Amino acid sequence: MELNVLYVIPLLSVLLALWVYLTRNNGYFKDLPIPCLPSVPLFGSSARLMLKRISFQDFVRESYNRFPDARIYGMFEMLTPMFVVRDPELIKRITVKDFDHFVNHRSIFGTADDPTSSVMLSKTLFVLKDQRWRDMRTTLSPTFTGSKMRQMFELIVECSTSMVQHYREQARDGGPRVYEVKDVFVRFTNDVIATCAFGVKIDSFRDDQNEFFRYGKEITNFARPHVFLKMMGYLVFPWLMDRLQIDLFDRKHSEFFTEVFRQSVAAREKHGIVRPDMVHLLMQARNGTLRYQAPEREEHEGFATAQESSAIRSEGKVVLTEPDMVAQCLIFFVAGFDTIATCMTFLMYELAIAPDLQDRLYEEVQDTEGALSGGALTYDALQRMRYLDMVVTETLRKWLPQPATDRLCTKEYVVPAEGDHPAITIPKGANVSIPTAGLHYDPRYYPEPDRYDPERFNEENRQKLHPAVYLPFGIGPRNCIGSRFALMEVKAIVYHLLQAFRFERTEKTPVPMRLNKGFSTLQAADGVHLKLVPRDL
Question: How much is the CA Rg of the chain, to the nearest whole Å?
Answer without folding.
Answer: 24
